[in-house]
Amino acid sequence: MKKIRKKLLRVHGSILIFIGVALTINSTIGTYLGIGIFSFLQKNEFALIGLFQAYLLMAVIGIVLWMGSTQENMRKWHLIGALAHIPPLTAIIMFWSHFVSMEVDSIVMFVAIFHCVLMGTESVFLIRKSKPMPDKTLRCVDCGNEFSFSEKDQEFYNQRGFQEPKRCKDCRDKRRRERGGSRGFGGR
Question: What is the pLDDT of residues 26-46, one digit of tens each?
Fold first, then answer.
């Protein structure tokens, strides 16, 4: 499941980066040269300001999703991936009559479907829980005794990026007392 989550965030991020940069370039060309799918912007250069910001913001969100794919807990990044599509979908719904009057409604319908698919996919992975981790039995490097590494402890360690414990609780406590109470995480 973790590999699929990582792959989804990276594919989604790559799509947003590529499309965000490509649409920024195309809308700028349409505005200043009057060619391409954004040639209509030449009549309203002011519209480029909003599009320029929106497209580059989507590219930045793509970068954020890539960065999120390297984190242990990826669910929050699926939330960001899903939420990123709400503003464009809202704009499409609110300004549909303008798209129809400009005769670009078929293109905008495709864009709306694109946003719905990506938002839906991210939402599925946001809702879907990872499989529970069974308790592990580990061997202490100091005393050699086995100790249990519970599901709850594994989740705690994973969320904070910690490695599995190498020592049982008794040996950790003993080591902490010998070092004057320090936990080894910069604490006291």
Answer: 999 999 999 988 888 888 888
The contacts of residue 89 (CB under 8 Å, 6+ apart) are: 112, 115, 116, 119
User: Residues 65, 19: contact at Cβ < 8 Å?
Assistant: no
Q: What is the sign, positive or negative, of the torsion defined by CA atoms of 121, 127, 131, 136?
A: positive
- Residue closest to 106 by CA, chosen among 152, 179, 37: 37
Q: What is the DSSP letter of 39?
A: G
The answer to whether the beta carbons of residues 53 and 20 sit under 8 Å apart is no
Task: Residue count of the chain, please give it.
Answer: 188
Buried b (16+ CB within 10 A) or exposed e, 43-63: eeeeebeebeebbeebbebbe
82 pLDDT above the threshold of 90 = yes
Question: Nearest Cα to 137, choosing from 152, 126, 150, 118?
Answer: 150
